[in-house]
Design brief:
- The chain is mainly beta.
- It has one domain.
- It has no helices and twelve strands.
- A six-stranded antiparallel β-sheet has the order 1-4-5-8-9-12, with no helix packed on it.
- Strand 4 (38-49) and strand 5 form a beta hairpin.
Length: 142
């Protein structure tokens, strides 16, 4: 098991952004665009020998981040609030050179956006993050 936490106090020192109606806005002291103040990940991994079948690998992880703003103005409309994503993997490695497995991403089917676009104003669109996804994988290493 493992994990990490990151804290970023990333703010503009001096910057003038284009505000509503094209007016200049001094954004000094506001958070940088698309940078969470807090983020982190925790994970659990388990491996078990299955005799002639090889090794069974199980993993589960949770990724979390705090609010991000998608404009230098840090407006409350073009932002993404805190969210978490849960992912899982199950893999069988019969030989060190290859493995086969199943994975699940965003198990809780969390809705989140990874960016916004406000062209043409005043329309604002959000770029959605990945939805719940399941799949298989085959890995071959040399």
């Amino acid at each position: 098991m493992g994990g990490h936490v990151a804290w970023l106090d990333a703010r503009y020192d001096r910057y003038t952004a284009v505000g509503p109606g094209g007016s200049p806005v001094d954004v000094a002291g506001r958070r940088l665009s698309n940078v969470p103040e807090w983020s982190g990940r925790i994970w659990l991994e388990y491996a078990r020998q299955l005799g002639r079948l090889g090794v069974l690998l199980l993993s589960l992880d949770v990724i979390r981040q705090s609010t991000v703003y998608f404009t230098p103005i840090n407006d409350t409309i073009q932002r993404q609030g805190p969210y978490s994503l849960v992912n899982a993997n199950i893999t069988v490695r019969p030989r060190p050179s290859w493995s086969v497995g199943l994975y699940a991403r965003n198990l809780t089917d969390t809705d989140y956006i990874t960016g916004t676009n406000s062209v043409p104003p005043p329309a604002i669109a959000g770029l959605p993050g990945e939805r719940r996804r399941f799949g298989g994988q085959f890995n071959l290493t040399r």
